[in-house]
Automatic annotation (TrEMBL):
Pfam families recorded: Aminotran_3
InterPro entries assigned to the protein according to its UniProt record, in alphabetical order: Aminotrans_3, Aminotrans_3_PPA_site, PyrdxlP-dep_Trfase, PyrdxlP-dep_Trfase_major, PyrdxlP-dep_Trfase_small
Species the sequence originates in: Octadecabacter ascidiaceicola
EC category: transferase
Gene: davT
Record-listed E.C. numbers: 2.6.1.48
Upper taxonomic lineage: Bacteria, Pseudomonadati, Pseudomonadota, Alphaproteobacteria, Rhodobacterales
GO molecular function: 5-aminovalerate transaminase activity; pyridoxal phosphate binding
Cofactor: pyridoxal 5'-phosphate
SUPFAM superfamilies registered for this protein in UniProt: PLP-dependent transferases (SSF53383)
UniProt keyword list: Aminotransferase, Pyridoxal phosphate, Transferase
Family: Belongs to the class-III pyridoxal-phosphate-dependent aminotransferase family.
Coiled-coil residues: none
Protein name: 5-aminovalerate aminotransferase DavT
Length: 427
């Protein structure tokens, strides 16, 4: 059945329940994707500057082929022996510090974060968790407590274990070496110890993507990692968005930020849209978790998922996609800086590799966020066939995070169009 947009919206509310969100004032109905391109039901072509899940490109032939081959051979679960899961974990962990040698595969980033928090509890014997006040780490009962702006109004009373520090904000509250952030975390740890909760873990995205990817210099997490370790806690780096070469300079953003986490959480781009997430940690942490919690995931680590995930790593290597992220990302930021010189509304340009964007403000002196205008720009870009979004505490930061094969030509189309839209909105 092919429905009209109006019918799709009505049927979504009827069949999926109310409050299922869509992007855009005029929601878009995609029917096909290839590389960095998407097509809607009317055959209109869009440049995808937003989706990081199709990491190696929409419908990447190597990934599609790997899925089809394995799906037509065997798909079971990890209670039977299979090479695929072992080959994948071995390849994945070989890209990380030698201390991170063991993994549990899941289907989502939420599950992976849930495991990471429980690992922290199992290994420290404590429950106090610290996160930033503008983050998102997923949707389980436990993990949803980490999103301060989004904490469920109902729930299982888990909020008592969570504490929040200010999300870093290089534009409004500079903290060039991460010591202010570290001091805030130290104060929260003291509080957790004093009130008897105890401290288990700090969980952060090492590039703070959901917070608006502040311009933290390389090595910025070192001071806070010391604070966490000195207090006997574990450092969890949620690389669901920041990993797999997206920052261009490093395969993993924690390397860029100068730390070796105790636990790494993975998801989104891991298998190019096939649902795969994972937790990587040292064998001792995984052993403590398995002792405390019986854990089995029916779909996690199945042969088809592992084939898809392996194909992503192979494709990244074959196409040099991390290097591409660096080259195209550098070009993109140069173009954004040129636009900032021309359009007053751009207050700050940030990013690394193929995560970049601009914070839009009403006035450079007060830095008052131009949140409504940002929304208008995103809708105007959609009308011109460019898909992007916004994020950050004030929802005024353009979020540009395209599939990794994004080219300089693609970036030029994006910024030529953005130039037109900014000129139009400033009239
Ligand atoms: N961690 C981060 C940093 C995320 O951005 C998200 C999803 N946006 C998640 C975890 C949750 O992943 P999932 O939706 O696969 O559960």
């Amino acid at each position: 059945m092919t429905r009209s947009t109006a019918q799709l919206l009505a049927d979504r509310a009827r069949l999926m329940g109310p409050n299922v969100s869509t992007f855009y004032n005029d929601p878009v109905h995609f029917v096909r994707g290839e590389g960095v391109w998407l097509w809607d039901a009317d055959g209109r072509k869009y440049l995808d500057c937003y989706n990081n899940v199709p990491h190696v490109g929409h419908c990447n032939p190597r990934v599609v082929d790997a899925i089809c081959k394995q799906a037509s051979t065997l798909n079971t679960h990890t209670r039977y022996l299979h090479d695929g899961v072992l080959d994948y974990i071995e390849t994945l962990t070989s890209t990380m510090d030698a201390s991170l040698d063991t993994a549990i595969l899941t289907c989502t980033g939420s599950e992976a974060n849930d495991i990471a928090l429980r690992m922290a509890e199992a290994v420290t014997g404590k429950r106090g968790i610290i996160a930033t006040d503008a983050t998102y780490h997923g949707n389980t009962s436990l993990v949803s407590q980490l999103s301060k702006s989004n904490i469920p109004s109902v729930g299982f009373g888990l909020g008592q274990y969570f504490r929040f520090v200010d999300a870093p904000d290089s534009y409004r509250h500079p903290d060039p070496d991460g010591t202010i952030f570290a001091a805030q975390v130290a104060a929260k740890i003291d509080g957790l110890i004093k009130d008897g909760t105890g401290f288990a873990a700090l969980v952060v995205c090492p590039y703070f993507l959901n917070e608006g990817f502040p311009d933290n210099p390389d090595g910025w997490l070192k001071p806070v990692a010391d604070v966490v370790r000195n207090a006997g806690g574990v450092l969890i780096c949620d690389e669901v968005q920041s990993g797999f070469g997206r920052t261009g300079t490093h395969l993993w953003a924690h390397e860029k930020m100068g730390v070796v986490p105790d636990i790494i959480v993975l998801g989104k781009p891991m298998a190019n849209g096939h649902p795969v997430g994972g937790v990587v940690a040292g064998c001792d942490i995984v052993a403590a978790f398995r002792k405390g919690y019986r854990y089995f995931n029916t779909f996690g680590g199945n042969p088809v998922s592992c084939a898809a995930a392996m194909a992503v790593l192979e494709e990244m290597d074959a196409q040099g996609l991390q290097a591409n992220a660096k080259t195209v990302g550098d070009h993109a930021r140069a173009r954004l800086n040129a636009l900032a010189a021309k359009h007053d509304v751009i207050g700050d340009v940030r990013g690394s590799g193929l995560i970049f964007g601009a914070e839009l403000v009403n006035d450079h002196a007060t830095k008052s966020p131009a949140s409504d205008l940002t929304d208008g720009i995103i809708n105007a870009m959609r009308a011109r066939g460019i898909i992007l979004s916004k994020l950050g505490r004030h929802k005024n930061t353009l979020k540009i995070r395209p599939p990794m094969p994004f080219s300089i030509k693609n970036a030029d189309l994006l910024f030529d169009t953005l130039d037109d839209v900014l000129t139009e909105v400033s009239r």
